[in-house]
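It would be a great kindness if you could assist me with a short task in structural biology. I am sending you one protein, given as its amino acid sequence and as whole-number tokens for its backbone shapes. I would ask you to consider whether the tokens describe a fold that such a sequence might reasonably adopt. The full record is reproduced below for your convenience.
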Amino acid sequence: MRDITRALRLLKMTKGSIHLVETSDALLSQQESLLCENPSQFVDGKPYVRCNMTKDAFPIYWYRSVDDIPAKFSIFISNEFLDALPVNQFKRDNEGRWHEVYVNLDRDDKLCFMLSKSETLHTLGLLPKKIREDLSVKEWEISIGAGTYVNQVADSITKFGGFVLIIDYGHDGTRTDLSLRAYKGHQVVHPLESPGEHDITADVNFGYLKSLVDDRTLVFGPLEQREFLAQMGIGLRMEKLLASCKTKEEKKNLLKSCEILLSEKGMGERFKVMSIFPKTLESILSQRKGPAGFASI
């Protein structure tokens, strides 16, 4: 977010405002301390729960829900947001029947995964026909919360203008195994071990998200982060940053960071980027062969 406000200031854009959605008070305070000079207080009776001014002189507001954000032209940016939302997992048994994965308690009162005894409302309502008909698919995973978010922002830009940019761990919908995992100290641990003490994540099913809105919006991607950054000119940016480095150590750290962003083993392949625009811009974007970062080749 600091990079965005810095870029807006350099572009001499002064009329915008920033609207963040955050459900955690602790994280909200961390964000405010990073972006603003002084702390603010929580407010009642407003759509937002807190407001302040950033160090770059932009009004900033915090909300509990996307629905509370003002209904007007907006640019929605989510970076490593959707992968943190709850996921819905499904498994097919040897007889071809689908079951939903639940969290339950075992005989020792420890959290464990279990399967529903039969089909559920979610298996009946969420599993696409092509997944059911492809008998090679034994597991499938989506996030209802991610789907809700994408529908919300798609509706907003359709009515009031704007666009959406999503950057996250994920796949194009072709992954056929479950991805829910947890990390503690950069080490993979069981997702149900010591709940609340680990970072839990699941790959975003961009194919599913795209299918929800591509009938009423223009969807570009998902494409790999390394391709997106290459089109956005990361090479030229690196040249400028390297030229400004004062020591060999600074250059070394910068090159290492860039490698993480672009490499297959790092974030370059695992991270995907997708953008959504109103259909009213179809003619303009077609003439430009797509928006920046998503130009057709």
In short: The first strand starts at residue 18 and ends at 21. The chain has a mean pLDDT of 93. DSSP finds ten helices and 15 strands in the chain. The longest helix spans residues 144-160.
